Amino acid sequence: MSQPQLPQSSDSALARAQTSPEAPAWMRGLYAGLFLYLFLSALNVMSGGLGMFGDESDWMERAFAYGENPFIALMGAVLVTVLVQSSSFTTALIVTLVAAGDMPLGTAVFAIMGANIGTAVTGVIVSLANIRIRRNFRRSFTAALLHDFFNLLTVAILFPLEWISGAMHEQGRGLLTRLANWLSDLIGLEEVANPNSPVRVITRPMVELFEWLTGLATPTVMAHGLFMAAMGLLLMFVSLVFMVQNLRGALLRRMDGLFRTYFFRTDIRSYLVGVFSTVMVQSSTITTSLMVPLAGAGVVPMRRVFPFMIGANLGTTVTSILAATANPVSAAMTVALFHVCFNLIGTAIWYPLRRLPVMLATWYGRLAANATRYAFAFLFLIFLILPVAGIVLTELLIIHG
């Protein structure tokens, strides 16, 4: 009688794990810390390179200059956040532009919505590191989609509500903007210095090293910034591949119980872990991207990923609050508080109705695992093709029509 055959990929991986000698747990812990450090450094190397390019070419300000139209403000913020890989950076920039009077409050709030969508691209990119292992890729891509669909569905409801209610208001302010403005009038925060992110402090040596190395090979500042960003992207992929491999080892099995029984035991704990971990590193891009390989490796149950993602979305609003208190203008604080209200209202809507985003993410994650072209189609369609097409069509049909 023939023996039943298990899936070849999982069989071969299991056989290698059983026959090959395992590294000690302390060594795997060191590997995990090293790969995490390289991953965090890569994000800041990319951000530094793109920021250098942006300062030289003034491209971000010009991208937002078309923000007089709410739809263009939304799409432009998606593109900017995708390029800089940080909604914290984008929202802080928006707050700064509003404080300086370079961006009207009525459209800055729509740019905040776009930043929320754009920040979810990193999780999708991170999930591609598991593309060769179907089961892990399905879980990691589904986890990334939970973040995407929460933001997309929230924007689908709040964008038209804010646009229509703003059109009927004499100052052009929508319902959420008026709520945020009322809250900003209640809080009168004094001006404080914007503290450095702890992640930026510990990764600064790596960023400076890459800045020096890439500067040797480039003739202009703009080329320097682009080359540095490309090296950061390469470092991110390399560190992620090794991080995922390390997570599937003995350290993962030892941490499994702790993650399941404590940090992600309930939805409220998962939500609070998402909030506070993002506050600590001041970047939802980092925390949500770290959750993707954890979910892909099976460390975190999928039902706990969604509350973690929406908690991370709230945690990232701290950066815009800090930017607003460093630029104490009423409009700037209103934009920052709008960011808070956007995520709180989105949570109030979609956590009770979480079956819808979870069902959509699970369905598309399974589809992408069976045919990876759907994963790339989602990545390029949502984060590149639709924003560019939206801006072009709006310019042609509405502004110049």
TrEMBL record:
Membrane association type: Multi-pass membrane protein
Keyword set, alphabetical order: Cell membrane, Membrane, Transmembrane, Transmembrane helix
Any GO MF annotation of the entry: sodium:phosphate symporter activity
GO biological processes: sodium-dependent phosphate transport
UniProt main location, coarse: membrane
Subcellular location: Cell membrane
Domain of life (superkingdom): Bacteria
Any one of the GO CC terms: plasma membrane
Entry's transmembrane regions: 30-50, 71-99, 105-129, 141-161, 226-247, 268-292, 331-353, 373-399
PANTHER family in the record: SODIUM-DEPENDENT PHOSPHATE TRANSPORT PROTEIN 2B, SOLUTE CARRIER FAMILY 34 SODIUM PHOSPHATE , MEMBER 2-RELATED
Name listed for the protein in its UniProt record: Solute carrier family 34 (Sodium-dependent phosphate cotransporter)
Organism listed in the record: Aquisalimonas asiatica
